[in-house]
Amino acid sequence: MIVLGNLGHVLARNTIKRILREHGLEPAPLRGRRMPWATFLKAHLGSISATDFFTVEVLTLGGLVRYFVLFVIDIETRRVQIAGIVRQPHGAWMKQIARNLTDNVDGFLVGKRYLIHDRDPLFTDEFRELLRAAGVNCLKLPAHSPNLNAFAERFVLSIKSECLDKLVLLGERHLRLAITEFIEHYHLERHHQGLDNQLITLPPLAPTTAMDPLIRTFAKNVRALRLSQKVTQKKLALRARITTSYLSMLERGLLSPHRYQQSRRWLAP
Q1: Cα 87 from Cα 204, distance rounded (Å)
Q2: What pTM was computed for the model?
């Protein structure tokens, strides 16, 4: 306020108060003594993630089996990665998860400074130490404080109420498929109020009204392949042309990577 006065600007006390409040700042005497949790999250958006477990009951030949699902969520973008699915988590498994999350190439926590988690004993000292060595500080939340990990809790509510609670899951493979499909929907199709009703990831560009020649050729080859009953040289050539079309569509953003992986299974001889 004194500096602005030296520059010829006069500001009222209420103006200063409003500016501090809009930016989540305490008055000067209290600023260094405490920081509200919401202010901490806002100040560290982009460098803070949260993690948690949730459990799912799966029907198998041996009866009901409980699986543990560990996920990590980026608080700023709301992106989610399923870190692992296992029947019974243990220390060695958690250490491998920590290595995966901090991998220099595609680790989810690369560039992050903080990871929020609860006091679950599964978050072992070895797990925390591996993250700390990669530059990620673990913030252990107080007991009985789910509101402090609200973003992770909200994701658990979403995946259970919108997907898992509506299915009778038959085996681990079914569980993994259901979670994978929901994650794709969560990123590409689901609007998020916390992001001003925007999508997390923009979907591939839709084809124009006039059908793209690449798509027209692709559809023609697919129809011919389905009509062909025997494994002939013609059918093998069709498979090769369709695979080439898939790769071209993937390059141009007309096809999502997940759909491409599904097509590879369909095109397998």
Answers
A1: 35
A2: 0.63
